Amino acid sequence: MTTSLQSAAAQDQSNIIPFLPSGKFYFSHGIQAFQKRRFNAAVKWLKKAIDTSPDEPLYQCQLSVVYTEVGSYHAANQLLSEVLTKFGKEYVDCYYLMANNYAHLGLLKDAKKYADTYMEYAEDGEFEEAAQQLIDMLESLDEDDEDDEWAFDDEDELLIYQETAFYHLEHEEWEEAIGVLHEMMQMFPEFTTAKHKYAYALFMSGEESEAVDIEVDCLEKEPSNIQSHVNLATFYLEMDKRDEAHEHVELLRNVFPMHEQQKLAIAETLARAGLYKEAVERFSVLRDKQVVRRKVYYKWYSIASYHTGDPSKALNLWEKGCKQFPKLSLDGGPWTER
C-alpha cells in the first residue's frame, strides 16, 4: 500500500510544470511599481526582465524612463544608446528620450542634435510636439552666454569631472573637491563655474581670505556675475559681516535667472540672509530633478518654510533631506538658530 502511494506521489510530482517567469512577467511588475512611484522596485523588476529577455528593447527603454524619473540621466542614455546600436532607427523614440536627458544634464549641443535627429526620422511620432518645443527652447538660448557651463567640445570628459566635484561638494568633502576642481580649472580654463565652486570649497575648508579674494577679483572683471555675488553674500554672511553681504544680497533680490542651478543658488542665499518669504517663493518654482534633490534645497527650503509659518512642510523637507544626506541631521533642524 505504501509503495503504491509513493509511486502515485512521484507520478503527480513528475506532472508538475515548474513556473519559469518570463520577461513579460517581470516587465509587468516593473510597470506596476513604476506607476506606484516605487522606483527602486521598478528598477529591480525591469532589470530581471532585461536579463530574461535581452533582445526585447522595450524593456531597456522602460528602464531608461525610470532612470530619467529619478535623475539618473547618464545611466538612462547608456541604455538608450545600446538600443539604438542593436536595433537602429526602428526605435526612433530613443532619440527624443536621449535629447531630453541631455537637456537635463546641461549638454545642450547634444540635446539639440538628438532632438533634430528625432524630428528627421519620426513620422507623426508620439513626441513630435515635445521635441519641437525642446528644439525651440534650445535655439532661444544664447549660445554665447558665458553662464552656459557646457559650451565645450569635450563634453563627456567635462561631465565626469563635474559629477565627481559635485559629489564631493554635496558630501562636504572639501579637500577632495578642491583637488578635482583645481584640475578642472587647468584642463578647462573657460569653464568658469569651476572657479566659483573652487572658491566655495576653499572657504568651507577654512581658507576664507583666499576664497573672498578670488570672488572679489572676478567681480572686478565681471561686475554682473551672479555666482560671484552668491558666493560673496554667502561668505560674508558666514563670517557674520552682514553689512558687506547686504550689497550682494540686495542685487540678487532683483535677479531672476533662467538656469535652475542659479535659481537654487539665489533661493539659498535669500534664506541665509533671513529673507524667508522671498526664499520660499524662489524655492517653490524649482522643478528640475537635479536641483530639488540637492542637500541645500532640502536644508534651506525647510528653514525658510519653518520661519514663514509652515512647520509641517519644513519637517517633511528636513526628513527627506536627512534620509538622502544623513549628515544633515547634525545641523539640528529647521528651528535651530542660525
TrEMBL record:
The keyword Repeat applies. Keywords: Repeat, TPR repeat. The keyword Calcium does not apply. PROSITE patterns: TPR. TPR repeats lie at residues 23-56. It comes from the Bacteria. This is Tetratricopeptide repeat protein.
